[in-house]
Give the backbone structure.
Amino acid sequence: MKILITGASSGLGAEFARQYANDENELILLARREDKLYSLRHELFEKVKSIEIIVTDLREFIPLQTKIAHLEDLDVIILNAGVSLGHSGEMASIEEFKRLYDVNVLANHAILEVLLPKLQKRKRGTIVFISSLASLFSMPSSKVYSSSKRALNAYAEGLRYKYKKDNIKVLNILPGFIRSELTDKNEFSMPFFLETEVGVRRMIQAIKKEKEFYAFPKRFYYTIRFLNLLPSFIRHQIVEKFSFK
Ligand SMILES: NC(=O)c1ccc[n+]([C@@H]2O[C@H](COP(=O)([O-])OP(=O)(O)OC[C@H]3O[C@@H](n4cnc5c(N)ncnc54)[C@H](OP(=O)(O)O)[C@@H]3O)[C@@H](O)[C@H]2O)c1
């Protein structure tokens, strides 16, 4: 398989690369940190059929589109790159808000604007969005991040309906807390926490089974669903008590 992974320089993206590294797979790894990408390439070089590095900033849409324009015959596109503003609970500045949306939402569209027509032409391909369980429940301390991931859910859903006839699978994965640079910054105790290797293994299984919606760990997902069924004044009390600060 030929697989593009965004945000491959650390965390879940780097682990996707490690777990997909075998002699049948061609990997294309995209992120900004060149040193991290090249050291991953060095680590995986002998295991994979081929490995290409694309160093680019996802917020710069035109250079991004230029740098991916040559990609052909992709089987899987894993739109994994994402940023959070932490859990300070402070009001984000408009600049921070925009930067987050550029990476978590708009860059994905910039990529698909270039690559989707190619999948459409081939009548095959899988697009995987890495959303978050945070998209289903917005805490006061992570409202910008949650809203970006909820936007991603809606975008993924629309794409899925639109491109089904072209045999393009659109999968949406909503992980809970998994060890990465993003969660290393969290100073609170993270419920249902998973190690990177375990979390990514589960996501790869879900991709293999072509699950259109995969939210995990299940106990965390069902807890959130239950919370969402409660009357809003009770939810409010729970949020006040457990807000991650
Ligand atoms: N870890 C969790 O618990 C968890 C839970 C739910 C969802 N997620 C989602 O999983 C995805 C991966 O996150 P992670 O936990 O693995 O975090 P991470 O270790 O911080 O990785 C984020 C990746 O995104 C890349 N990235 C960020 N800004 C970029 C930019 N402007 N241009 C290009 N690449 C950029 C980073 O690369 P460079 O810095 O090198 O550019 C890095 O490779 C994110 O979408 C996150 O929201 C994570």
Notes: The domain at 2-242 is CATH 3.40.50.720 (Rossmann fold). The chain is about 50% helix and 15% strand. The mean pLDDT is 95. The two ends are 42 Å apart (CA to CA).
